[in-house]
Amino acid sequence: MGLKLKACSVICSLLLVLLIVSVQPSSAGTCSLSSLSSCLPAYEGGKPTSSCCTALKSQLSCFCSYASNPSYKSYMYSYSGRKIAAACGLKYPNC
């Protein structure tokens, strides 16, 4: 049961990070959940790394599309999500 909880936490963490950064997917398809894996430790309470911040910044154009998705919205606007964005110097766009 502990392993399932950990796996769920990791998946939720990835979704949150994806939501933080994702809004309107570009035609080039730059929105990628796997590219945000470097942010998992930060979502779980650690400090965001430079690679995490770079990944988030590269996906800012995806933010609003994920913010409008009920499945992702709560992760994106969570305390951890806001903390990571602030630590990376990112502002939430007005969608």
Counted by DSSP, the helix tally is 6
Main sheet attributes: strand count, strand direction, barrel closure: none
Query: Radius of gyration, rounded?
Result: 12 Å
Total strands: 0
Helix content: 55-70%
Structural class: mainly alpha
Terminal CA distance: 38 Å
Secondary structure layout:
Blueprint: H1 2-21, H2 40-43, H3 50-58, H4 63-67, H5 70-76, H6 79-87
Question: What report would you give on this structure?
Answer:
It contains 6 helices and no strands. It is mainly alpha-helical. The protein is globular. It starts with a helix and ends in an 8-residue tail after the last helix.
Summarize the structure.
This protein is mainly α.
Keywords:
single chain; 95 residues; mainly alpha
